Amino acid sequence: MPGSDGGPSKGPEGPEGGPLPQGGPLGPPEGAPAAPGRRRLRAAISIILTLLFAAGLWLYVSSHMGEFRELASRPLPKARVALLALSVFLAYFVNSELVRRAFLAHGVRIPVLENLALGFATSAANYFLPFKGATGLRALYLSRRLGLRLQDFVTQLLLVSVLSMGLSSAFALLGLALVRIPDTGAFGPGVPRILALYFLLVLALAVASVAFGAFGIRPPRFLRGLAESWDRYRRAPRLFLGMLALDLLWYLCWCAANWFALSSFGARLGLSETFLYTSLQIHALLINITPAGLGVAEAFGVFAGQALDFGAAEALLAQGLSRVSAICVLCVFGLLGWAYLARLGGPPNTAGKKPNGDAGTNDDVNADKIANTND
After folding, report:
1. pLDDT tens for residues 179-202?
2. Could you give the CA distance from residue 24 to residue 12 in angstroms, rounded to a whole number?
3. Per-domain residue ranges for the chain?
4. How many CB atoms lie within 10 A of CB 335?
5. Continuous segment of H or E residues that includes residue 36
6. Count of alpha carbons within 13 Å of 29, Cβ hemisphere only?
7. Coil, strand or helix: which one is 24?
8. How far is it, in rounded angstroms, from Cα 25 to Cα 1?
9. What pLDDT, in 10s, does the model give residues 35-88?
10. Which residues of 249-267 are buried (b: 16+ CB within 10 A; e: fewer)?
């Protein structure tokens, strides 16, 4: 689901870009800095879990060293590796634009280049920090520079995440309908049913949050903030359809990235398997408790390798290749983003919010009307 880091975290930033999805991802964003004691506790938990996951991964690889050596000795197809890196870049790029359009609902227009710089810079920091630790910095930046309220920031990123989770759940159900998961070994006959029930519940919550806002029904308390945000898009259907198209493109970018990574090590996935694999990855990376989801993504790889009938070794090596691609993309463009933001500096960009005009697009939405709907 895209989240603020684009990885399937995708999330979404949103969700920012994807498969990650990596750029990936995708739970409620960190809206404000945590208290010092809580930050220290989170850091300690993250370090302990990272060490445990790393130790478990080392033990697993050591016990299957022959299989890993055989696969690693094969030459990597350069074209697929390049396309993998391109897919990862596009996932983060698309996620940044998706988040920028989400903020148009509040009359906040982020300049395109500044938004890309902020998206890649935040994604790079989030990739190496647990619990999406850099998202609060993004909220602070947008608040000081463009006047975006913290409440609106949190609600819109959560909305993007719900949109991404709902979309990925729909594709997961399609994949489950077309893919036969073996019911032997580690997988009993109930596993596909449990997965289907889970994805169905997530999809139902996403649809419910839209329906309450679209039809003016008073929602339950836990859906009220989302429903009020969806109500803004009811008055701007073209903006919502544009966001939905971008979210679909983000998801497909991560599908492509996963396919290129797995096929580089000989795993064979059809379209339905790729949908299911990508959706499982997006939802698994909601457990964002270690830097870059270290250990969580690898455990998911072993699960997916057995469930979709290709080896766990292939899945782990593909995950490693995806990590290298994401790190290369985020280090290059994240550093460029930080440099660009440092150059901007100066006073807040008062052009970001227009009191008597649209939100910066000539066809999507009248920002002033939408921004004042619930304020």
Report:
1. 877 655 455 567 788 888 999 999
2. 6
3. 36-371
4. 13
5. helix 36-63
6. 41
7. strand
8. 4
9. 566 667 766 766 676 677 667 667 666 666 665 666 666 778 899 999 999 999
10. bbbbbbbbbbbbbbbbbeb
